[in-house]
Design goal:
Number of strands: 6
Number of helices: 0
Strand order of the largest sheet: 1-3-5
Shape: globular
Helix content: under 10%
Structural class: mainly beta
Strand content: over 45%
Radius of gyration: 11 Å
Length: 62
């Protein structure tokens, strides 16, 4: 069985990849300091609320 991943209440300051064989649920996340957040889900990526990528930082969904 494949479980969903929850990525909540995070400040991303270094390159980070979140991988899930199911869905990824994102809530209260900020990407800063030129960091890159990559979300790699076999299912859906759900951004629930309060998601910010500051200037010079990156966000990718695979």
């Amino acid at each position: 069985m494949c479980a969903n991943a929850n990525f909540t209440n995070q400040t991303v300051t270094a390159n980070t990849t979140v991988t899930s064989c199911g869905d990824i649920n994102v809530q209260n996340v900020t990407v800063i300091n030129g960091a890159k957040l990559t979300l790699d889900a076999a299912g859906e990526v759900d951004i629930i609320s309060d998601f910010e990528v500051e200037l010079g930082s990156e966000f990718e969904i695979k």
